[in-house]
């Protein structure tokens, strides 16, 4: 049975994450929002600290983690209850994104590609790519959330795969050491032929074309990358090259990254709620948890509704991470958490701007920035609409061909 309290062994680590967010991330939030594409040098020290915690065994899951299941767990045989790196990661990410989402996404060696490697890499690959900062490249000009539409190709030629194609909206694509690229071995086979490859940044044929200017998360660089006759060692293919094993191994990455994105949304929304409550209190608006909502002011009633919406997103996120730690299939819960948290964060941050009026809309506070940052959390790692489609397929027992 899931316990909704923060596990005792994580409390010190979560408190540390909150302290970093309060003392390093939030004070630099406005600076790097205005200085788009400028590298946040303060993060080098933070990344070194996270690496040190991981190396010493005191990190409690610091950094990117993956959904890796043992055979026993896959068979439903789990001794006791595990609170592992997935739950620790979402709890720490909530705290860090209470500070700043864009800066969290800019942390060295903590990219979404690192989660992909952690999820599906072999033990040998885990050792070989240890310490590498990896971005993840999925989206293409003609392919967004429908990953089955990927057109970047990977052709086996001797001991190398040759990649050709273009990827857009690659988070940390300009700063990373490597990119986890999704490509198809055979376009005619659809999803089954899609695999992921680790491509180091110095590989000939790989070019960072440009960095995007964005609405939010401006501290994080977002790149367009082109691959032209880019040769990648065959041992850099993550997981199995066997097409018969299908798309499941690649998609397992999302079982991990979607709860992480949900955690980002939960943290950002919490920051907005806390500041909004302070501003409402300063304006004389009292929020009373002991009185019925209909007996309170409209502002207080709106705030209480937002807080309830946030609580639902928070609990779904914990559930998805806890299930991963306990070897339980969590694809449905990961999509539910991502869908709920992404939409809730959008609604909450915008409503907070509305409730606080000119204070929320100006740059005097960070409320307007959080409303801009939150929008991407409802889009990347699978849009709101796609998550709802995945949830519907799971609940109705339909395949992607039966329910489009």
UniProtKB/TrEMBL annotation:
<feature type="domain" description="Acyl-CoA oxidase/dehydrogenase middle">
    <location>
        <begin position="135"/>
        <end position="230"/>
    </location>
</feature>
<feature type="domain" description="Acyl-CoA dehydrogenase/oxidase C-terminal">
    <location>
        <begin position="244"/>
        <end position="396"/>
    </location>
</feature>
<keyword id="KW-0285">Flavoprotein</keyword>
<dbReference type="InterPro" id="IPR037069">
    <property type="entry name" value="AcylCoA_DH/ox_N_sf"/>
</dbReference>
<dbReference type="InterPro" id="IPR046373">
    <property type="entry name" value="Acyl-CoA_Oxase/DH_mid-dom_sf"/>
</dbReference>
<dbReference type="Pfam" id="PF02770">
    <property type="entry name" value="Acyl-CoA_dh_M"/>
</dbReference>
<keyword id="KW-0274">FAD</keyword>
<keyword id="KW-0560">Oxidoreductase</keyword>
<dbReference type="InterPro" id="IPR009100">
    <property type="entry name" value="AcylCoA_DH/oxidase_NM_dom_sf"/>
</dbReference>
<dbReference type="InterPro" id="IPR036250">
    <property type="entry name" value="AcylCo_DH-like_C"/>
</dbReference>
<comment type="similarity">
    <text>Belongs to the acyl-CoA dehydrogenase family.</text>
</comment>
<dbReference type="Pfam" id="PF00441">
    <property type="entry name" value="Acyl-CoA_dh_1"/>
</dbReference>
<dbReference type="InterPro" id="IPR006091">
    <property type="entry name" value="Acyl-CoA_Oxase/DH_mid-dom"/>
</dbReference>
<protein>
    <submittedName>
        <fullName>Acyl-CoA dehydrogenase</fullName>
    </submittedName>
</protein>
<dbReference type="InterPro" id="IPR009075">
    <property type="entry name" value="AcylCo_DH/oxidase_C"/>
</dbReference>
């Amino acid at each position: 049975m899931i316990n909704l309290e923060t596990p005792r062994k994580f409390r010190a680590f979560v408190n540390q994450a909150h302290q970093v967010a309060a003392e390093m991330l939030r004070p630099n939030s406005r600076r790097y929002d205005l200085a788009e594409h400028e590298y946040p040098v303060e993060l080098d020290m933070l990344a070194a600290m996270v690496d040190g915690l991981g190396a010493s065994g005191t990190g409690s899951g610091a950094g990117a983690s993956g959904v890796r299941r043992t055979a026993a767990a896959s068979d439903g045989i789990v001794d006791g209850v595990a609170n592992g790196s997935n739950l620790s990661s979402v709890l720490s990410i909530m705290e860090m994104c209470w500070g700043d989402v864009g800066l969290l996404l800019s942390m060295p060696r903590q990219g979404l590609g690192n989660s992909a490697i952690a999820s599906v890499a072999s033990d040998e690959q885990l050792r070989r790519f240890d310490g590498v900062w990896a971005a993840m490249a999925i989206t293409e000009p003609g392919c967004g959330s429908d990953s089955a539409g990927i057109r970047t190709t990977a052709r086996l030629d001797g001991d190398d795969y040759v990649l050709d194609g273009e990827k857009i909206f690659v988070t940390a694509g300009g700063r990373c050491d490597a990119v986890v690229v999704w490509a198809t071995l055979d376009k005619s086979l659809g999803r089954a032929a899609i695999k992921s490859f680790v491509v180091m940044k110095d590989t000939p044929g790989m070019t960072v074309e440009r960095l995007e200017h964005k609405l939010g998360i401006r501290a994080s660089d977002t790149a367009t990358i082109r691959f032209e006759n880019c040769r990648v060692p065959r041992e850099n293919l993550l997981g199995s090259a066997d097409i018969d094993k299908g798309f499941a191994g690649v998609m397992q990455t999302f079982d991990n990254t979607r709860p992480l994105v949900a955690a980002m949304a939960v943290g950002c929304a919490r920051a907005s709620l806390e500041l909004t409550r302070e501003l409402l209190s300063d304006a004389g608006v009292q929020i009373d948890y002991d009185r019925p909502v209909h007996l309170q002011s409209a502002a207080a009633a709106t705030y209480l509704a937002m807080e309830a919406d946030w609580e639902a997103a928070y609990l779904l996120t914990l559930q998805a991470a806890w299930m991963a730690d306990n070897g339980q299939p969590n694809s449905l819960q990961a999509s539910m958490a991502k869908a709920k948290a992404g939409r809730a964060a959008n609604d909450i941050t915008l409503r907070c701007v509305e409730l606080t009026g000119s204070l929320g809309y100006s740059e005097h506070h960070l409320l307007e920035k959080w409303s801009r940052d939150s929008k991407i959390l409802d889009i990347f790692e699978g849009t709101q609409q796609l998550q709802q489609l995945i949830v519907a397929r799971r609940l109705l027992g339909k395949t992607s061909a039966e329910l489009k």
